[in-house]
Amino acid sequence: MKVLIVQEHVDAGRGGAETSTLEMARHLAALGLDVHLACAAGADPTAAPELTWHPIPAPGATRALRTYRYLQRVQRLRNAGRYDVVHAVVPSLAATVYQPRGGTYVETVARTLARVRSPILRELKRLGRRFNVRQRFLARLERRLLTRHAGRVTVAALSHYVRRQVEVQYGLSADRIRVVFNGVDFTPLPPDEAAAARAALRARLGLHAGSPLLLFVAHNFALKGLRELLRALPHVPGLLVVAGRDRSERYAARAARLGVAERVRFVGVDTPVREWYAAADVLAHPTWYDPCSRVVLEALGAGLPVVTTRYNGAAEVVQPTGCGRVVAEPDDAAALAAALTEALAPELRRTCAEAAPQLRETLSMARHARELMALYAELLSPRHSGRERRAPGRPPP
Q1: Which of the two ends of the chain, N or C, has the fewest CB atoms closer than 10 A to its terminal CB?
Q2: How far apart, in whole angstroms, are the C-alpha atoms of residue 377 and residue 384?
Q3: Given strand 264-268, what is the order of strands in its sheet?
Q4: What distance in Å separates the CA atoms of residue 312 and residue 296, rounded to the nearest whole number?
Q5: Domain spans of the chain?
Q6: pLDDT higher than 70, residue 38
Q7: Residue 199 is inside which H or E element, if any?
Q8: For the structural domain made of 191-362, what CATH number should be given?
Q9: pTM score, two decimals?
Q10: CATH superfamily of 2-184+365-386
Q11: H/E element holding 124?
Q12: What is the CB neighbour count within 10 angstroms for residue 214?
């Protein structure tokens, strides 16, 4: 089976959808598929030599123009390549499978605006987005793909949260959507290394063995709810570690205004996140929007309790397994503080540690790739020509 994956930017160092796309492609290749990757020129093919890379030069003075030219040339590549499946991560009219790993553009904009408290500022930001030509172009293209071209594309949604977005925002029928729950490549530290990392990091922080340690991991502090987490922190015991690439100055100033500056440490990205999972007692992820957070899936695989929001597709695993708490709104400081306090209970940590081995398999990228391959096979089967489809599946337990 020859598969073309369409993702403009592929850089595992940037995390998120780009890391997931590369992991997914490599697992599909490991299953025996002939996997081709169409990406912008400048990508590093040595990151996955088992794939056939198609770096597409798309020069232009603006990001919007470069993206437009890239997608035009993807169409030509599709026409010349005789692919069985075109799996698009960015909107492309060449797609037979569309997997919006960053969620739909409508929901992305709505949830980004939702975190702006002032109605006046919210409206100004809404108006300002009209100048984001690239985002407007991709949003229009996504709408066209899922309405006018809906008869020839199947959506592989990362969660039921994303499935609902597609159904509500575009009216796509249920038989055109399959939930292929997100996965991650994650291996926790071996027990002896985890114990050593826990002791070393806590000593570095000046934290004794029994003190609670909350962990926040993100590269977009605003969207992932750091401001809201700092508001809840006065009512939660312990120290907060903030790991990730973002500007920390204004959050440090906010922590000082809230009187919790001594209880917050900004640690950047120098220490592997696996070590922080071993050192922490709970992952705090009060996100405003996540189609299905990789960080949450990794934390669960590490046996760490998670507190997140209903605007995260990964909440569909947290709640049924009991490995954490899900709050309704990220800016409900009282609910967030209560959820974090509950998640710090030692018995919940034990429950999560016991569930972790099974969750690592259930939430693996290998499982995700197997389900995608099964979907491809179904779409290529003679039976599919009659449009006989099963109902969308359930997320992993």
Answers
A1: C
A2: 9
A3: 264-268, 239-243, 213-217, 282-285, 306-309, 324-327
A4: 9
A5: 2-184+365-386, 191-362
A6: yes
A7: helix 191-205
A8: 3.40.50.2000
A9: 0.91
A10: Glycogen Phosphorylase B; (3.40.50.2000)
A11: helix 119-128
A12: 25
